[in-house]
């Protein structure tokens, strides 16, 4: 893991994440989902708050990720749970692109 003193860490290269894609990665022991939405990148925790399912195995639709297990949904920008059975929000992370790297800021 490459992280600098400000907490930014590389999660993928730009070419790893195509238009409209979601990619699951593990960084610093955390499961993170990275998204491309209209060429802007977002990142959230990858594990659903309802039960154990990886959101990166789900479907990105209109700015929301749909969980593959019970079809709960989250807004990928805010992390807000938007459809049942999910009621607890997911954590989001700041994202930046530096050269060819997609980076997120861990806290
Ligand atoms: S595990 Fe995600 S909606 Fe149930």
Which molecules are bound in this entry?
FE2/S2 (inorganic) cluster
The profile of the biggest β sheet is: 4 strands, antiparallel
**Which ranges are low-confidence, i.e. pLDDT below 50, for 5 or more consecutive residues?**
none
Coarse shape: globular
Q: Count the strands?
A: 11
Order of helices and strands: EEEEEEEEEEE
Radius of gyration: 13 Å
Helix content bin: under 10%
Instruction: State which percent range the strand residues make up.
Output: over 45%
**SS element count, helices:** 0
| C-alpha end-to-end distance | 15 Å
Can you offer a commentary on this structure?
It is a single chain. The radius of gyration is 13 Å and the shape is globular. It is 0% helix and 46% strand. The structure holds FE2/S2 (inorganic) cluster. FE2/S2 (inorganic) cluster (FES) binds next to loops. FE2/S2 (inorganic) cluster binds next to loops.
Key traits:
107 residues; mainly beta; four-stranded antiparallel beta sheet; globular; binds FE2/S2 (inorganic) cluster
Briefly, what is this?
This protein has 107 residues and is mainly β.
Topology:
Layout lengths: L7 E6 L8 E6 L2 E8 L2 E6 L13 E3 L2 E3 L6 E3 L5 E3 L8 E2 L1 E4 L2 E5 L2
The structure holds FE2/S2 (inorganic) cluster.
FE2/S2 (inorganic) cluster binds next to loops.
């Amino acid at each position: 893991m490459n992280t600098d003193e400000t907490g930014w860490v590389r999660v993928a290269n730009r070419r790893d994440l195509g238009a409209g894609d979601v990619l699951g990665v593990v960084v610093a022991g955390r499961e993170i989902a990275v998204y491309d939405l209209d060429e802007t990148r977002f990142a959230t925790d990858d594990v659903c708050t309802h039960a154990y399912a990886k959101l990166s195995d789900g479907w990105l639709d209109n700015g929301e990720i749909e969980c593959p297990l019970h079809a709960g949904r989250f807004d990928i920008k805010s992390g807000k749970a938007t459809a049942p059975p999910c009621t607890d929000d997911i954590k989001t992370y700041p994202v930046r692109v530096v050269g060819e790297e997609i980076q997120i800021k861990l806290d």
